[in-house]
Amino acid sequence: MENPEKVILDRIKSHEIRRRVALSRKYPLFKRPVSFFRCLLRYIRNLFDYNIRYTRSNEFFPYVIASCQSPLRRKSGDNNPGLQDHKIINMKRAIEKLNGIVINPEKANIHHDSEIR
């Protein structure tokens, strides 16, 4: 006869183990098409979302709402230079997409319809 403590521990382990495995783990070839499809769906959903409204403008405004002054390259010796290069590339891509976006003040508050109850 087995030790009752071992039987209980085995049953607990069998319930704690995740049985569901992501499709990208089972079929790695599906990872790119599935992520592309999800990004496409999110893009289409955002196109028709009336809470997300903005315009583009090249004029400068007298007030700055947000700014970032984080150093792009850190001088510490234990940072990976490859990661810092990728950070700079990602910042350039974000600047290209976000530069010139103006959010109208009446559209900035997404939760204006709902009241706190």
Structure commentary:
This protein has one domain (about 5-70, about 80-110). It has five helices and two strands, in the order αααβαβα. It has helices at about 5-15, 25, 30-45, 80-100, 105-110, and strands at about 55, 100. It has a two-stranded antiparallel sheet with strand order 1-2. The protein is elongated and about 80 Å long. About 0% of the residues are buried. Mean pLDDT is about 80; it is low at about 110-115.
Shape: elongated
The radius of gyration is 25 Å
User: Are there runs of 5+ residues with pLDDT below 50, and where?
Assistant: 112-117
**Adjacency order of strands in the biggest sheet:** 1-2
Keyword list:
elongated; mainly alpha; 5 helices; single chain; 117 residues; two-stranded antiparallel sheet
Short description:
48% of the residues lie in helices and 3% in strands. With 117 residues, the protein is mainly α. Strands 1-2 form a two-stranded antiparallel sheet.
